[in-house]
């Protein structure tokens, strides 16, 4: 409940990183527990992090995912299956060889398996925690930013403009004013596109099938070409062409 509501308050990015950090820290601390009560307390605390990891990760994944590929959210559960395999492979030699048996006197030195196991799991979580910070950058969810009224930030990081920016494109005029001005220009060009489509279907030997085929091919070509845009003007031009031909369909 905390992470579900919390990521709407302080953002998905912080929650995404903190869940692994909390899990790893309390996993390490739990390995030094002097008694069962301490183990229970630290297990509850690391579970607080684990419990937030799945909903927060799923929320980020889903909010950046196109609607046509949302089925991949179900495939994301494979991570849990892989994690179970890794945890079992680590637990097998440690708990199998370093755990007290029922018919022998149990000392701390003979029962270190579970401590080593928790240290290993905490270490893996800590490694993943640092990888999230060092190896790649998690950007805040556009949905969260729009919910906070930060429309300019949402536009700046969302979808195609962000992808192009990572490849060297420069869009220095990404203000809300320019964004909606360009959106209006693109939308207006859809009107003549629809009128042209109505005229082309009456052309002999072209008809509905020919019009649909040509317009679909042109739409795909313009959409693909838009990924080459290096500035705002060229992106606007490709998007205008794309919207024009898509309304012919």
Q: How is this structure best described in words?
A:
The protein is an all-alpha fold. It has 2 domains: 1-162, MFS general substrate transporter like domains (Growth Hormone, Chain: A, Up-down Bundle), CATH 1.20.1250.20; 207-248. 72% of the residues lie in helices and 0% in strands. It is elongated. The protein starts with a helix and ends with a helix. The mean pLDDT is 77. Its main location: membrane.
Q: Helical segment tally? A: 13
User: Structural class, judged by helices and strands?
Assistant: mainly alpha
- The CATH architecture of the largest domain: Up-down Bundle
Gyration radius (Cα, Å) is 27 Å
Q: State the fourth-level CATH superfamily of the largest domain.
A: MFS general substrate transporter like domains
Order of helices and strands: HHHHHHHHHHHHH
CATH first level of the largest domain = Mainly Alpha
First-to-last CA distance: 46 Å
Number of structural units classed as domains: 2
Number of distinct beta strands: 0
Rounded average pLDDT: 77
Q: How would you characterize the largest beta sheet?
A: none
Give the DSSP E fraction (strand runs of 2 or more residues).
under 5%
Query: What name does the CATH topology of the largest domain carry?
Result: Growth Hormone, Chain: A
Silhouette? elongated
Keywords: Membrane, Transmembrane, Transmembrane helix, Transport
Membrane topology: Multi-pass membrane protein
Subcellular location: Membrane
GO cellular component, one term: membrane
């Amino acid at each position: 409940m905390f992470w579900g509501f919390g990521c709407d308050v302080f953002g998905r990015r912080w929650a995404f990183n903190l869940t692994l950090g909390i899990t790893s820290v309390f996993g390490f601390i739990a390995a030094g527990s002097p008694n069962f009560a301490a183990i229970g307390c630290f297990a509850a605390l690391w579970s607080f992090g684990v419990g937030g990891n799945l909903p927060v990760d799923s929320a980020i994944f889903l909010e950046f995912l196109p609607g046509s590929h949302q089925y991949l959210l179900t495939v994301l559960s494979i991570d849990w299956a892989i994690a179970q395999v890794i945890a079992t492979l680590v637990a097998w030699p440690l708990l199998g060889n370093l755990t007290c048996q029922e018919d022998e006197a149990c000392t701390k030195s003979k029962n270190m398996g579970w401590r080593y196991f928790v240290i290993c799991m905490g270490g893996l979580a800590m490694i993943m925690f640092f990888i999230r910070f060092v190896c790649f950058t998690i950007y805040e969810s556009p949905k969260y930013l729009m919910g906070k009224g930060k429309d300019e930030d949402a536009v700046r990081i969302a979808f195609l403009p962000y992808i192009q920016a990572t490849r060297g494109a420069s869009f220095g005029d990404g203000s809300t004013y320019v964004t909606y001005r360009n959106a209006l220009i693109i939308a207006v060009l859809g009107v003549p596109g629809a009128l042209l489509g109505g005229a082309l279907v009456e052309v002999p030997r072209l008809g509905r099938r020919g019009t649909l085929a040509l317009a679909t091919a042109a739409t795909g070509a313009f959409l693909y070409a838009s990924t080459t845009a290096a500035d705002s003007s060229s992106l606007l031009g490709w998007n205008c062409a794309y919207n024009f031909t898509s309304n012919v369909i």
